[in-house]
Amino acid sequence: MKNTEDLIAAVTRMHAQYSASRIDRDIVCGWVLGLPSYPASMGSALDAAKAWFRQKQEDITEDVRRDDLAHLMAVVMA
Fold this sequence. Notes:
The chain has one domain. It is built from four helices and no strands. It has helices spanning 4-19, 25-33, 40-54, 62-77. The mean pLDDT is 93.
């Protein structure tokens, strides 16, 4: 993804799929960590999401899922 519009569309789709439990957290983690860097505010939000998803979670609780989804949405809203 080279432009921000593509990134927003892709993150929005990933958020929707994860929110609906169509994909699991491991897929989301790998996908987020594989994204390239982006400039400005979107880059900061994406870097924060990458840092969050790098953390290993023993149990995937509703709180963890909520925070996962919040980090994805922060990228969209940046």
